[in-house]
Amino acid sequence: MEDTQKQNILVVEDNENTRRLLETILRSAGYEVILAPDAEEGLRILQGEAPVDLVLLDLFLPGADGIQFLRSRAEMDPDGQPPVIVVSATEDMDTLRPQLRELGAMLALRKPFDVQELLNGVSRYATKRTAKAAAPAAAPAAPAAKAARTKTKGKSATKS
After folding, report:
1. Residue 85 has pLDDT above 70, yes or no
2. Structural domains counted in the chain
3. pTM of the entire predicted model
């Protein structure tokens, strides 16, 4: 019998309404949710004992911003660096994507976000604690899957 541990998603978002919306979406999809209103609290949670399988991160936060959160996360022990999905209202998302990827963000979504796209990203990138041995084998498929669905974002993947 396989252990079906729920995945823990850390939501780092300063807007209470957005934080609660993300919590509702994630809980209804079967995830456990940990909430942080700012980067400092989010980093404290990452350094704590509770396992975090994925971070949903806003860029515009009071105090340290999302970029600073990503930089601090990159300095942590690799085992304490869960994947990150950025969810932000920035108009510069297309410009920021390369920097966000360089800092470890797996996906960047602009608010207002498509709920299904968010859930697909969470499902794809959340660490699978119950199948650690299978996780590395699944990783190479993610870029191909992402490339296949990015047809509506930014520049077209095809030139025909």
Report:
1. yes
2. 1
3. 0.78
